[in-house]
Amino acid sequence: MSSRKPPRVALAGFILESNAFAPVATEQDFRNRYYFEGREILDQAARDHSVMPMEMAAFVRAMHATGPWQPVPLILTGYEPAGPVEHGFFARTVDAMLAALAESGPVDAVYVSNHGAMTTTESHDPDGEMVARIREAVGPDAAIVVTLDLHANISERLVEASDLIVGYQTNPHVDMRERGEEAAQSLRMILAGARAEAAFVRLPLTPASVVLLTREGPYADLIDYGQRRKRELAGTIFNVSIFGGFVFGDTPKNGVAVVVTGRGDGDAARALAVEIAARGWNDRQRFRKRLTSVGEAVELAVEAGLDASAPAMIFSDAGDNPGGGGLGTTTRLLAALAEAGARGVLFGSFCDARLAAEAHRLGVGAELEAVFNRDGESEFSKRFAAPARVVALGDGDVVGRRGLYANRALALGACCALELGGEGGITVVVISNRRQTADPVFFEMLGLDIGAARCVCVKSRGHFRAGFDLWFAPAQVYEVDTPGLTSPVLERFQWKGLPRPVYPLDEDTVWTPPRL
Fold first, then answer.
1. Coil, strand or helix at 233
2. Where do the domains of the chain lie?
3. What pTM value is reported for the model?
C-alpha cells in the first residue's frame, strides 16, 4: 500500500455578483443568506437540500468518491446579486479565512468557489485579491483550483494566482454540479503531478446578459467551439472556459474572457486561447438583441387572454432581474398589463415584505387596496395601487425543482398571491426575500397552475428558461424592454469603469490578437 498521506485541501468561497448601480451589500445580507464556517461547510455539503452553491457540494462529494483526502473547511458565504459589498466586511472575511488556514497547518491545495463578478466599495477586483492572498499564504507549491460563474469578470491577478479556473458552460446555469466534479477530478490529476498552465485573453466586448444564452446564439456557438477544440486536443488541455462577463460590474476588467489551461503544454493553451478569442471577436455583431417593447408585450398578452387557441407565452421583465442586482420592485410592466385589462396572467415575483405581511394579516379571501412600493419610490420602482383579493398565502420555505434552483433550499419569506382585475385577471406573487423567479415553485407553492395561464411574467433575465421550458418553447419567450437596474439597453447607463472603447457601446472598437 502507498504510504503517501491523503491530500489536505482547504475549502473557501465568497460569492457575489455586483451590479455597480444597485445598493451596497452588507455583512448582514450575507449572514442572513448563508455564512458557513468550518465543519458547517461539510455538513451542508452532505445535505440533500442546501442553500450552499451546488459546485461546492459537488466538489466535496467528488473528492470523497475519488480517494482519501482531508478537507480543511474555512469560510463559505454568499448573497443574491446586489451592489458592491462593504469593503470592510470583505476584508475581515478574507482575514478570517487566512487565520483559519494558518491555524490548520500546511495544505496541499485550496478549492475556491466564487462567482467572479464581485466588487467592493473600494476595489474592482476582490476576487483576484482574495485568491492572490490565498496564494501568498499557501505558497507556490500548493494547488489552487477555482470555479466561477460564466458571468465572471476575469482579471490578470486572478489567473496568475490560480492553477486552474473552471467556468460554467451553461446559461441558464444547470451545470454547477458537473463543474464542481470537474474541479475535483482536475485537482486529483494536478496533485498526482500533472502541470497546469493557463493562458488568458480578454476582448473589448461587453454584451448584455440576454445574448449570453448557451442553447443558441453567438455565445452558444463560441462555447461549443471551445469544447470541440478541447476534445480535438485531448491530453494537452485541462479546461476551456469562456466568460461572457457581467457588464453591470462596470470595471476595467470587464470583457468577454477566454481562459485556456494546458496540461503540461502552455504553448497549446496560448494558441487556443487566441484562436477562440479571434473567433468571438469576428462574430461580435451577433452579440446584439432586439427586445419586445412594453406596448407590444401588453398587446400580445391581451390577445392571448382573449384567444384560448393562441399559444401561451412567457415574458421576462428584463430590466428588473434580481439575479443581476435588480430589486424586484419595478411596476412598469405590471401596471401596463393591469391598465389594459389583461386576463389569465401570472406575474412573479414582486418583492414587497410589507405587502406580503398585510395579506397574511388580512387572510385568504380578503379584499384590499394593494399598494406596491408603499414605503417609497425610486427612479425605477414607482408606486402602484390596485384593488386586489388575497387568493393564497405561504411561508416561502420551499425547495426548487427545476433549472437553476433544482434541489436547492429557498427561503422566500412570507409570500402571497394577489388577484388583480377580478377572477381570471392578473395574479401577482409577492415575496419578502428578493430572488429571481427562475423556478415554477414560485407559483406552485401558492397553488397556481402555470399550464392554465395565458401569459406568465417573471422577474428573471434568462434562468427562467430552464425552469419553465415544460410549458414554453423558445418561440413563446419574450424579453421585454422594461426599465430597471438590469436593462439590456446599455446606452441608458452612465458607465464609469468599463474599458473604452468597447463593443457594442463603441461601434468603432478595434482589437488586435495578442502574442502570448
1. coil
2. 1-194, 195-289+490-516, 294-487
3. 0.95
